[in-house]
Records
---
Amino acid sequence: MGSYFAARATRSVIAKATDNAAHPIFRLVEIMARLRAADGGCAWDREQTFASIAPYTIEEAYEVADAIERGDLGDLREELGDLLLQVVFHAQMAKEAGAFDFADVARAINDKMTRRHPHVFGGEETRSPREQALAWEAVKRAERAARASGSEASLLDGVPAALPALTRAEKLSRRAAAAGFEWPSVREVLEKLHEEIAELEAEIETGDLARVREELGDLLFVTANVARTLAIDPEDALRAANAKFVRRFGFIERRLAQAGGTPAQSDLAEMEGLWTEAKAAEKARG
């Protein structure tokens, strides 16, 4: 239980400095240390690793986004807690490995936020939102360059491979665009989109699935570029399209059920008609 008592000791030191021993964040760090304790902890929590927990971390981030999308602040509070637990979980495992602890995580992000906001914390002139966004990217580039090693450095370093593919495509193209590898306007991007559609159609005709997969990937990448050029988050746009599909298909299911049927008992023509009806109803509601 050494990690548990170490967490309690850390809490005691911080509490003396802040006179806030009952702060919930200290309790959460303590709970996680207790769960990971070799003596009396939780068997499931003890056997977890960074790799095994990573999918849960990603899932919790998506659940935060979902609560925001639904405008459910009560659910958002709960989901943010679940996401915070993931941070504490990773920090506890790192502490056990002698790498860092939760305080180090907080300290690092504190330093980063003050470093990237010199107009707030460093006496520089106030920036507009656009000026701040450009300055933020400039600081990030400088930080990446400082971490890189010689000829191995690339502008595309540091874009996590584990990101959702559309998000990563948008970020990769944004990095390249910042270096001048950019179409002059959205018109040229749309022309490239049409070109990729034609290439996909040609490969579908050949029946070569490997080539079809490659061309489909190119099409999706350019689609992410269209979104970036229009200042639209491609993941956000696709989430909205998914929600719309679920809503309209639900309309089809309800209408068929009212007639005593199901989608499996219907045909495409009937369901297309109901889909059009669902679209019209949404348009009428505004």
Note: The chain has 13 helices and no strands.
---
Amino acid sequence: MPDFRRARGRARALLTKHGINSYPVDVHRLARLEGVEVDRSDFGEEISGLLVKDGARAVIGVNGRDVPARQRFTIAHELGHFLLHDSRELFVDRDFVVHFRNETSSTGYDALEVEANQFAAELLMPAEKVRELFSKQPFQIDDKRALKKLAAAFGVSPMAIAVRLSTLELLVAA
């Protein structure tokens, strides 16, 4: 079973630890502050990102083909794996830990993926800040301009902010 509370709590703790209270969150900087390198690669169409741990070294690989908003979410997601999940659960080889992010990541069937998605959502779009901004200018789900504006404030896609608003039960039906 995914531990939503733990995932969201770790994201909030990370923001607090590094004194981050402005948005969009600089996920590249945050990864570096946590000792994780970020490397852009071409993973083709199938993979958005991966996390590789080799001893004390950790690298997030992000698909350079993806749009910047997707890359940011992927980095946050993989950082979630790094901070939440015991490496013993992810061993693929004796020397490396690899966890792929793909089209099944958001389906809700893999507890580790669900937790990493919850972490990423809270890191990039903290519930408190989303509620604050939305309450200033509430809008209906079909208001594409307002959705894009709010998404831009957090550096995420309109789809990501729509899902977040829905999860937080903030969207007003048309």
Note: The chain has seven helices and four strands.
